[in-house]
Amino acid sequence: MMLSRVADSMFWMSRYIERAENIARFLDVNAFLHLDLGDTVEEQWDPLIAVTGDEDMFRERYGKATRDSVSKFLMFDDEYPNSIMSCLAGARENARIIREYISTAMWNEINKFYLMVQDAPREMSSEATSQFCEEVRLGAQLFVGVTDGTFSHGEGWHFARMGRLLERADKTSRILDVRYYLLLPTVSDVGTPLDIVQWSALLRCASALNMYRAQHGRISPSRIAEFLLLDADFPRAVRHCCDVADRSLRFITGTPAGTFRNNAEKRLGRLRAELDYTAIDDVFNEGFHEFIDRLQLRLNEVGEAIVENLLAPQKILQSQSQSQSQGSWHRRPMEQPE
Amino acid sequence: MLFTNYDATSAYDEMFAKTGGPRRGTELLFDRLGKLTGVELQHYQNTAMATMRSLGITFNVYGHADGTEKIWPLDVIPRVIEHDEWRLVERGLKQRAMALNLFVNDIYNDQKCLRDGIVPRELIESCEVYRAQCQGLKPPKGIWTHISGTDLVRDKNGTIYVLEDNIRVPSGVSYVLENRAVMKRAFPRAFEGHAILPVEDYPERLLETLMHCAPDGVSDPCVVVWTPGIYNSAYFEHSSLARQMGVRLVQATDLVVHDERVHMRTTRGLARVDVIYRRIDDDFIDPTVFREDSVLGVPGLMDVYRNGGVTLCNAPGNGVGDDKAIYVFIPKLIQYYLGEDAILPNVPTYICENPKERAYVLEHLSSLVMKPTNASGGKGIVLGPRATRAELDEVRAAILEDPRNYIAQPMLQLSTVPTVVDQNVEGRHVDLRPFILYGKEIYVLPGGLTRVALRKGSMIVNSSQGGGSKDTWVLANKGH
After folding, report:
1. Coil, strand or helix: which one is A51?
2. B266 touches chain A (CB under 8 A)
3. How far apart are the CA of A255 and the nearest CA of chain B, in angstroms?
4. What is the arithmetic mean of pLDDT over B54-59?
């Protein structure tokens, strides 16, 4: 039993940390890609904005998408709710709301993590950017590790884990999308032979290269898509994320697996079942973008149902509601707290 | 040498006697500090502040553009209180706490002290924070002032005075705990060889105090801390105390009255709350009783309280006891209720409500300190000797307009403690806020919060106005 308001903050604190980590991964995947491509192709930063950011907002504030402008937008723009800086501020603000509830070690890590991002120089070389993204990833993983090691694995912990995995499911699908969007603009291109190095870079940015190799051996784009979307065991795979989020949901509600008593359970259970019974060919038949777009929509619906069914009392806390994303996204907007 | 040019003569210095040597009890600290260079001392100071920052030990300042959250300022040179002197202060504080509690209870029940003419009835009736709604209440165990913080100052002649009582929602205790913890981490060698009374058991004792006054018939009470929210100036403290006691921190929106009890909204439905350590003013407890325009309160809560279904700590209405015009009567009330002389003296105080005293105050504005009777945080205080002509005229008009709202006191020369200033040490003025818990017995936290005015010559110690703080050591060895 916990305060609904506290559960809400656990959920969002955790999501924001995961979001920051994934934004760092987005930046990394693109930077690596351009290193691998060398001078053969002009650097493409628009897709990163298209897939991960608010395109209108970006255009209005920065104009042309360059390495500099995109990095600034995604790393430090504190008016953009999904920048790494904003995510850390949001995570810390939620942690501050429940500081008495989380462990001291969790608070210390999140505060240090926030200060690290806040203190980082706003102008960075590409090496420094890469280093910074690495630190953000490590900071996020350290926080998760400290949470696991110092916070009782009860209801609150499950709210945090559920938030983290729903966020991760959404972001893994986006990372994959960046790559496909960039290199395979039409469905018919899927499956054409591409540089192994580039695909390896994608896997590495999802920390998935070794696990993929062990599972599938040779690099193949459709296998990679399969691995990152449908693998049951890889911790960043969408299906795995949905499985674990569902387990946490059921720990919280006490409803047995395979049944449902509210919309959150119904929607997540359905999504989980669909992923269990989908082959990668089905994905390509539907259309890769189309599948991912639908996936993101459904993840958002799960998030909404969780707010409605479990965190609803939060809705009356108008005075402290957190910022909403404005404007339209080229892709589905990332979820924001109520 | 750090202390070569230290000036210990402009006020009573807590560390050095007028003759220049360390006072009894501070010899060892003097020896430890004396071995450091200014650069080394500054290094410890910087480490302490870096630790404060990385641990997120903060306070909020209203109306600041650069974010409301500020790092809590700690000066690494501790303020030492010698054992025997502390025992006297402690006895004085317990005596005062007991009398204050009896007074508040008397006001809301028999009003004997009014009938016997100890306190003028008009003063109570004109008191802004007197709550008629609390008349006739008998809180569990007869306790109204569970947690209090009494501000002490030491004047030039060395006498310790009570400057004011705080029995509504006194804050600062969490910083006593954090200061000690940060000091141990950042400046451990200062502690070597010292035996200092611990402060770390405060949260345990606070919880004990809160559980002690649970409603009748509740054996395993659910205790919560009620905060106005993260933008409140003392939010850090609310959160910190809840965490250290292991109880829930709630906001008004978490609470609801149902079935004649107070409950909190949880993910599993409603859960009953028995004791509320409220860190919110009376006005905002229950909009149906106190302030209808309040969005912060819990409708119906006062009814539950009045029927004994929940305990509020501190009790609503007890602000009548720390009204600055009532303050004058506390020594008399100690005599009246306890038959004892007050151990800790009051600062001589003029009540502007009294025509004779008002005339004196108006004649001597430029040498007195004028204080509103019901404000906190140093708001509205006018220091006569440092005020401009216009400020004096303003306070004169204010006193004439509403004399009940003002008292005046002579300007005290607060004592000084060596303080780190740019790789050097200079004396800065301090006060002291000890914390007192009124439960099964009365407990005084050893030491308390030493606040220090960081600007040279300044007597303003409030953290919202450039004040800092110091770890406060009460030496454990008798007759050290």
Report:
1. helix
2. yes
3. 13
4. 90
Q: Specify the pLDDT at position A125.
A: 87
For residue B65, pLDDT over 60 is answered with no
Backbone conformation region of residue B304, classed left if phi is above 0, alpha if psi is from -120 to 50, else beta: alpha
Q: Chain A interface, mutation test: which of B239, B267, B273, B284, most A Cβ atoms within 10 Å?
A: B267
Assess if residue A334 is contained within a domain.
no
Shortest distance, CA B56 to any CA of chain A (angstroms): 6
By C-alpha distance, the chain A residue nearest B242 is A100
Contacts A317 to B, Cβ<8 Å:
251, 253
- Do the strands B69-71 and B406-410 form a parallel or antiparallel pair, or are they unpaired? unpaired
Q: Looking at CA atoms only, how far is residue A236 from chain B in angstroms?
A: 28
Q: What is the pLDDT of residue A327?
A: 27
Q: Do A4 and B239 count as a contact with CB atoms less than 8 A apart? A: no
Structural domain total, chain A:
1
Is the separation of the CB atoms in A287 and A184 below 8 Å? Answer: no
Say if A335 falls within a structural domain.
no
Please list the residues that pair with B399 across neighbouring strands.
none
The distance of Cα B397 from the centroid of its chain, to the nearest Å, equals 30
Residues 234-263 (B) with a CB less than 8 A from some CB of A? 235, 238-243, 248-251, 253-254
Residue A174 lies in a domain: yes
Order across the sheet with B223-226: list the strands. B248-250, B223-226, B275-278, B311-313
- What are the chain B neighbours of A103 within 8 Å (beta carbons)? none
How far apart CA A94 and CA A274 sit, in angstroms, is: 33
The first and second tokens of residue B235, run together, are: 């939010």
* pLDDT digit string, tens, across residues B308-356: 999 999 999 999 999 888 999 999 999 999 999 999 999 999 999 899 9
| B55, B235, B254 ranked by CB distance to A108: nearest | B55
d(CA B418, CA B6): 8
Compute the distance between CA of residue A274 and CA of residue A48 in angstroms, rounded to an integer.
Answer: 28
Question: Could you report the predicted ipTM of this complex, rounded to two decimals?
Answer: 0.75
The pLDDT of residue A38: 62
Angle between helices B173-186 and B38-54 (to 10 degrees): 130
Residue A118, chain B, CB below 8 Å: the answer is: no
Residues A118-160: tens digit of each pLDDT: 999 998 888 899 899 999 999 999 999 999 999 999 999 999 9
Count Cβ atoms below 10 Å from residue A277 Cβ, excluding itself: 8
Q: Of the candidates B54, B229, B242, which has its C-beta nearest A100's C-beta?
A: B242
Which residues does chain A have with pLDDT short of 50? 185, 187, 189, 191, 313-330
Residue A337 located in a structural domain: no
C-alpha distance from A8 to closest chain B C-alpha (Å): 10
Taking every pair of C-alpha atoms in chain A, what is the biggest distance, in angstroms?
Answer: 58
Say whether B56 and A2 touch across the interface (CB within 8 A): no
Is there a contact between B56 and A111 if contact means CB atoms under 8 Å apart?
yes
pTM: 0.85
Residues of B in contact with A12 (CB under 8 A): none
Structural domain boundaries of chain B? 350-410
The CATH number, out of the four listed (2.60.40.1120, 3.30.200.20, 3.30.1490.270, 3.90.850.10), of the domain defined by the range B350-410: 3.30.1490.270
Does residue B63 carry a pLDDT above 90?
A: no
CB atoms inside a 10 Å sphere around CB B141? 14
Predicted confidence at residue B164, as pLDDT, reads 92
**Residues B370-378, mean pLDDT to the nearest whole number:** 78
Q: Is the peptide bond before B314 cis (omega within 30 degrees of 0)?
A: yes
The token pair that represents B310 in the structure block: 């929940």
* A147: nearest Cα among A139, A157, A155: A157
Q: Are A52 and A174 in contact (CB under 8 A)?
A: yes
Range of the domain at A37: 4-320
Q: Which residues of A150-159 are buried (b: 16+ CB within 10 A; e: fewer)?
A: ebeeebbbbb
CA B75 to CA B69: how far, in whole Å?
19
Task: Indicate whether B162 pLDDT > 80.
Answer: yes
